[in-house]
Design goal:
The structure holds three protein chains of three kinds. By secondary structure, chain A is α/β, with parallel strands linked by helices. In chain A, about 40% of the residues lie in helices and about 15% in strands. In chain A, strands 1, 2, 3, 4, 5, 6, 7, 8, 9 and 10 form a ten-stranded mixed sheet that branches. In chain A, helix 6 packs parallel to helix 12. The longest helix of chain A is centred in the middle third of the chain and has 31 residues. The N and C termini of chain A lie far apart (about 70 Å). The longest helix of chain B has about 35 residues. Chain C has two domains: about 230 residues, Rossmann fold, CATH 3.40.50.300; about 120 residues, no CATH class. In chain C, helix 3 packs across helix 4 and helix 4 packs parallel to helix 5. Classes of the chains: A alpha/beta, B mainly alpha, C alpha+beta. Chains A and B meet through helix 1, strand 1, strand 2, helix 3 and helix 4 of A and helix 2, helix 5, helix 17, helix 23 and helix 29 of B.
């Protein structure tokens, strides 16, 4: 009889729902519930794309006893995840390279302002936004010009020189649609050439000329390095940590001696830590402790040893910490580009680059 | 003289209803009014207590699961295009502007490009898959036994490695140029639609081969014999086999088509310079932007679904009204064609070429990147160097994620095979009913939507505050990742089984029901053993596909547990090619070991009767 | 009860008002049927007549749209109430044998006895017994694909009778077998089923098979039972032209009913008058079809003085031999006469093609039925 089958169907649904609920271990307490600050410890959820994020999480837990669940992934998927979670965020902290995402998050009101206890050095002061909505933990620059000194005689001193005949067909860079750090480089060039008013136009003109001079585009840092190693290019414009890593890793031979220079101006590409505003009070308090830990000498030491050939090769932004000896001195000519301005333009610029330059 | 050939070709005579014979929920729970016979009293007793649950139609659970793991996430993602504010992705509660934003000239070009690529890939994969199945199952070509292993290796090979291998071969100062071959022309051709089709076809061949060979095994030789006796040559016999295998062929075509149009990675790598936009380009642009433009991504997904509907339409028209039921107790093992020397030479050459092309290139790429120090570069010793492997083996970077992923892949495979068998049976039996068509559409939609979209749909569905408030906290747990894996694997696995399921003669299960076994017992004791080998293949397919699955893993992995694919990608993105590739190779080898063990177990442990089906003498 | 038969264990089957429609095609239209317990009932009909649907509905493989099924006093199916297949106490022999390919012969048969829940020794004895009865004990360890078609069907038969089911269903089990096998297996089916005492329901489109097997035959046409009775009744007194046709006709002539004579009906066909029987009341001067059974016709040489007036009404008619077919026992002839063609005219000797002869029609083998307008296809042979 029909009514009974409806009961059965309802029963099945209920059973299934219970089963689902029972099978799942609640990963963390729902951050959306505004409970008064409890004295109990809640795990921190860290979405991070840094090479040393896992060891940092462990070190923090060892120091404070607060458990950290690290979601270690590439920047792109993490940002997609955060965007999809918008109506019910599950993260406490986000730690990725580049501040444009954070500027955007701040605009959407998702970040908690926090001024850490550490004091910033000159570079750090330039990066930190006025409202302290996010905090850098270190910085690299875009771009380092890595070149094979065994194969070339001329070393450029400005970007404009790359348009000259000595560099025809010998320069390579990354593809901004596949390499995250590359858009800041392009935006930096644009900012340098024309600022906010005519930067895009001037930048497009520059890259078009560079392309006419035989610019080669490779998907990522690694591919550009490979091209350098195989002699397809002699000069590569890549992220500073990748360049430094190459010079450390590779034993120079007669045919290949990688060296690095920094052309004015180098665009800052900081690693940034931000706190979710929607997290409950306990988590917010714990997150602040994490930020302070990351900027403390102990934390920075962990970071500097956690990923020796990759992300550890950053320049510090706090006064109490020195750079690793493997790193060269910080480039003298550097700029910080306004993420609130250049961030929203990424889609447009990358599309232009892919259709006109690549 | 057997009339089986004619029987195979004509539609079923007495129009038989292909409705499943499981009782409906209502009747199972009905209380009979005033009957006194024993059986009825037994019925009444059976409806009491927990027996009531057993009498409930198991199909209800199945459909519920399909809704939860497939329909809900897809629907929610699609809703975002129309109602962004529902999920906080925009301010409007109802709008069509995302479609307007998505429908640019480039998108239309992209759609045409994707359509061309999808069709070419599907047809090529099906043709090669069929030829391969034929050679392996129906001839005595030398070297045929390795091909099942090769096919699984192909499944495991990530398209990244395939593209990398080709790049290393063709790049300036690459290996081919070092030999003296000017690769400029080849490069121009490869870095464009041709290359995309090549790489995607290599990825598509395993699906096609598995689907078609499963079905070919179930085809006894009586059909070909019938043709030969009536004067048809080898070609006619082969054409008959193709026709009889139509459900499997169309399954393969449809799934490869759907996989191709949802691809982005291969297209973006290879079509970089050639300005060959594909349909997913707009979608990925929308997702890469921050703030993420889900409404536009969703709008493009709607349009991708249109392509899927077209594919299904074509399939249904082709399969309409025919009967393909050839697998039963009367099926006799097929006999191999004995090839003469020229035949053997030709097939061996072709097989070797295919092997080199499909598997050799990515292997070379892997070797070049991880084993040989600085191959092709000015630096490096160009010698075999195990440093990468030494670094990776034994490090927790490999072992923990690999174990985690292997465990998840095994669970996924087991659950998926059961569900896929049910799906395949439904698709085979009620392909033309509303339920069958909807299932077909849902399954193919899940494939056509890029993985990242699918995963985002999961976040939308299971991170809803409402869901949390009714007590379901599975977002961010391994459970959700498992469900997503199952949902991702279900479409291809069911299609691989459709060929087999449409072959099982209905009388197999009917005879079992009539002679006293209930529905589930009939399934377990009759249908599953008959399909044991295809089910094993399906299990291994799912295992290998899940182990290295990427987009869903990236978005849904629980914090603190890292699937191996995410680890590999992060390593590669830190430009550690050597280490990343070494990780990849080791993961692939571990999966191949599982495949070998599984087949060995089947060979030595399974009852003799199970291996009967599809034996070729 | 003969020595071959045991205590009847079968039950009678009662169908009332059973119908089923597939889409827009009605397969069964309100069928009422009573199947006698422990008797062998055959449903005979062309394809599309609904016999398969009826069988599958009784088996539980399909559901009827309306109507009820009772096995004895037990309600099996009515409206939403339905006893599932596995609880109906049936067994079935399929057209395609339906042996499970992954099980040996012994395992195939043993599967069917599981529901009896016998001890393993008992079950093994029953299985061996069944296999012995079909003569395949020696092949108990073989797999189905190693057996010939006939052997497979015998295994299916063993599987059907093991465990003493109360009802055995047969779905055209002999259609896929060679001619010589068919007869042998038919005998096995008949003896084994009767020996087991089960009720048997058998469907086929082969008239000879049906007549040989049945205690009771039901003729189905387009979803309706046109006649139910013993083979003799069906043959001698078919209720409708369709039944007559389906049970074997040599041919038919169009004529007019002119009255009765000597207990027979008189039909005027052209210049001839024939005597025949009829089962329906005929109005005077109504148009009829004169249906001629093969057994009612004989070939005679034409006498020297042919145009004798008596021969006109003696049921003799001039004919020409068109074709001769050797049948082993004799010859079947096809003859043409002024009013049509007759087939299957038997004679022990062969009449050469083209010979003119006399065709004698025996009144007892002739039937007259009123000619209905717009009879769809049932007048065609």
């Amino acid at each position: 009889m029909i009514p009974k089958s409806r009961y059965a169907a309802g029963g099945i649904l209920a059973i299934a729902a219970l089963a689902l609920a029972g099978c799942s271990a609640p990963a963390q307490a729902s951050p959306a519930s505004a409970s008064p600050a409890a004295s109990k410890v809640e795990p921190l959820v860290l979405y991070a794309a840094e090479g040393f994020d896992a060891v940092m999480g462990k070190a923090f837990t060892k120091k404070t006893g607060i458990p950290v669940q690290v979601d270690d992934d590439s920047t792109g998927p993490l940002l997609t995840k955060i965007a999809a979670e918008k109506n019910n965020p599950q993260w406490s902290l986000l730690w990725v390279d580049g501040d444009t995402a954070f500027a955007s998050l701040d605009k959407q009101g998702q970040l908690l302002d926090y001024k850490p206890t550490a004091s910033w050095n000159t570079v750090g002061k330039k990066i930190v936004p006025a409202d302290n909505s996010y905090d850098p933990t270190g910085t690299t620059v875009m771009a380092a010009l890595i070149y094979n000194s065994a194969a070339v005689s001329s070393i450029p001193t400005t970007y404009q020189e790359l348009l000259g005949s000595a560099y025809t067909g010998k320069v390579g860079m990354n593809d901004p649609s596949q390499s995250g750090p590359t858009y800041p480089f392009i935006a930096g060039v644009m900012n340098q050439l024309g600022g906010k008013s005519s930067g895009i136009k001037d930048g497009e003109s520059y890259f078009t000329k560079l392309k006419a001079n035989g610019l080669k585009v490779y998907p990522t840092n690694g591919d550009t390095l490979h091209a350098l190693e195989t002699g397809q290019i002699d000069y590569g414009l890549i992220q500073s940590s990748a360049a430094t890593g190459e010079t450390i890793k590779v034993k120079p031979t007669a045919a290949y001696k990688p060296k690095v220079v920094y052309l004015p101006e180098s665009t800052l590409l900081p690693s940034v830590l931000g706190i979710d505003k929607g997290a409950d009070a306990t988590q917010q308090a714990e997150a602040k402790k994490f930020v302070d830990f990351a900027l403390s000498p102990a934390g920075q030491a962990v970071m500097q040893t956690g990923d020796p050939s990759g992300d550890s090769l950053f320049w510090p932004v706090v006064t109490a910490v020195n750079r690793l000896p493997q790193l060269p001195a910080f480039p003298s000519a550097y700029q910080r580009i306004d993420p609130a301005f250049w961030g929203p333009l990424e889609s447009q610029v990358v599309t232009w680059f892919d259709s006109s330059i690549k | 003289m057997s009339t089986t050939a004619a029987r195979a070709q004509t539609a079923v005579g007495d129009a038989t209803d292909r409705r499943d014979i499981l009782p409906s929920v209502g009747e199972a729970l009905a209380t009979p009014s005033d009957f006194t016979s024993q059986a009825v009293r037994r019925e009444r007793a059976a409806t009491r207590g927990w027996q009531r649950l057993r009498r409930v139609n198991p199909l209800t659970f199945f459909w519920l699961l399909i809704v939860l793991i497939l329909v809900l996430p897809i629907l929610l993602f699609l809703t975002v295009a129309i109602s962004p504010s529902l999920l906080d992705q925009g301010s409007q509660a109802f709008t069509l502007s995302s479609f307007a934003d998505a429908l640019t000239g480039q998108l239309f070009v992209g759609f045409l490009d994707s359509l061309v690529i999808g069709i070419s890939t599907a047809v090529l994969s099906a043709v090669i898959g069929f030829a391969l199945s034929w050679v392996v199952l129906r001839t005595n070509a030398p070297g045929r036994r390795i091909w099942t292993g090769v096919v699984f290796a192909l499944l495991l090979t990530p398209s990244y490695l395939i593209a990398l291998g080709w790049e290393r071969l063709l790049e300036p100062n690459g290996v081919l140029e070092v030999i003296g071959w000017d690769t400029t022309g080849l490069r121009g051709v490869f870095y464009g639609p041709v290359g995309i089709v090549i790489v995607l076809t290599v990825k598509g061949i395993p699906f096609a081969y598995l689907a078609i060979s499963n079905a070919m095994r179930g085809l006894g030789h009586e059909y070909e014999d019938a043709i030969r006796v009536h004067g048809g040559g080898k070609v006619t016999a082969m054409r008959t086999v193709v026709t009889l295998l139509a459900p499997a062929m169309w399954s393969a075509l449809a799934i490869v088509f759907a996989e191709s149009i949802s691809d982005f990675g291969v297209a973006s790598t290879l079509a970089n310079d050639s300005h060959f936009p594909v349909a997913t380009y707009t979608l990925y642009n929308a997702i890469e932007a921050f703030p993420v433009n889900f409404p536009v991504a969703s709008a493009v997904s709607w349009l991708l679904l249109v392509l899927v509907v077209l594919a299904l339409f074509a399939q249904n028209r082709a399969l309409r009204g025919r009967s393909f039921r050839v697998l039963g107790g009367r099926s006799r093992p097929a006999i191999r064609h004995q090839l003469g020397v020229p035949g053997k030479v030709i097939t061996t050459t072709l097989l070797t070429l295919l092997l080199l092309f499909a598997l050799g290139v990515p292997t070379f790429g892997a070797v070049a990147a991880s084993l040989i120090d600085g191959l092709g570069s000015l630096a490096g010793t160009h010698q075999l160097d195990f440093a990468n492997y030494q670094r990776v083996i034994g490090s927790p970077q490999l072992s923990q994620p690999l174990l985690y992923s292997a465990w998840l892949a095994a669970i996924t495979a087991t659950v998926t095979v059961v569900l896929a068998a049910v799906c395949a049976r439904l698709l085979a039996n009620s392909g033309t009913s509303i339920g069958g068509r909807i299932l077909d559409l849902v399954l193919l939609a899940a494939v056509a939507l890029p993985g990242i979209v699918f995963a985002a749909g999961y976040i939308f569905a299971y991170n809803l505050p409402f869901v949390n408030s009714i007590g379901i906290h599975i977002y961010g747990t391994t459970m959700l990742l498992l469900l997503a894996y199952i949902a991702t694997a279900l479409p291809s696995t069911s299609r691989v089984l459709v060929g087999t399921m449409s072959q099982i003669q209905e009388s197999m299960a009917q005879a079992s029901r009539i002679h006293g076994s209930g529905a589930i017992r009939s399934w377990l004791s009759i249908v599953l053993p008959i399909t044991a080998r295809p089910l094993l293949t399906a299990w291994l397919l799912t295992y290998t596909a899940t182990l290295l699955e990427l987009p869903v893993s990236q978005l849904l992995a629980p914090p603190g547990s890292e699937p191996i694919s995410v680890g590999i990608t992060t390593t590669l993105s830190k430009y550690d090619f050597g280490g990343g590739t070494a990780l990849e190779v080791l993961a692939i080898l571990s999966a191949l070991a599982v495949v070998a063990i599984a087949y060995a177990l089947f060979r030595f442990v399974a009852p003799a009767g199970w291996k009967n089906i599809g034996e070729t003498r | 009860m003969s020595a071959l038969e045991r205590e009847p264990v079968g039950e009678g089957i009662r169908l009332r008002g059973v119908s089923k429609t597939y889409g827009t095609v009605p397969a069964l239209r309100g069928v009422d049927l009573d199947i006698a317990a422990s008797r062998f009932t055959v449903l005979l009909g062309p394809s599309g007549s609904g016999k398969t649907t009826l069988l599958r509905g009784i088996a539980g493989i399909e559901r009827f749209d309306t109507g009820s099924i009772h096995f004895g006093a037990q309600l099996i199916s009515e409206g939403s109430q339905n006893v599932p297949s596995e609880r109906r106490g049936l067994s079935m022999v399929f057209q395609d044998y339906a042996l499970w390919p992954h099980m040996t012969v012994r395992q195939n048969v043993a599967y069917a006895i599981r529901r009896r829940r016998l001890g393993s020794a008992d079950a093994a004895t029953q299985v061996s017994g069944a296999l012995e009865r079909v003569g395949l004990e020696a092949k108990a360890g073989a797999f189905p694909h190693e057996l010939s078609g006939g052997q497979q069907q015998r295994v299916a038969l063993a599987r059907a009778i093991v465990g003493d089911p109360r009802l055995v269903l047969f779905d055209e089990p002999l259609s896929n077998l060679d001619a010589d096998l068919r007869e042998r297996l038919r005998v096995e089916i008949a003896t084994l089923t009767r020996a087991s005492g089960a009720t048997a329901l058998y469907i086929t489109h082969d008239q000879a098979e049906a007549f040989a097997l049945a205690d009771q035959i039901g003729i189905l046409n387009q979803g309706r039972i046109e006649q139910l009775g013993t083979p003799e009744e069906i043959y001698r007194a078919p209720a409708t032209p369709f039944v007559a046709q389906f049970t074997g006709l040599a041919g038919s002539f169009a004529g007019i009913y002119v009255g009765d004579r000597d207990g027979y009906s008189q039909v005027r066909v052209g210049d001839h008058q024939f005597l025949c029987t009829n089962s329906t009341a005929l109005a005077a001067h109504v148009k009829v079809d004169l249906l001629v059974r093969p057994t009612a016709s004989r070939l005679l040489p034409i006498p020297d003085r042919w145009s004798h007036p008596e021969s006109v009404s003696s049921g003799d008619i001039e004919a020409t031999i068109i074709d001769v077919a050797y049948r082993g026992r004799g010859y079947d002839h096809v003859v043409d006469c002024a009013y049509g063609r007759l087939v299957s005219i038997f004679d022990a000797r062969a009449w050469p093609r083209g010979t003119r002869c006399l065709l004698r029609i025996d009144p007892d083998g002739c039937l007259a039925f009123p000619r209905l307008m717009h009879q769809s296809g049932s007048n065609e042979r």
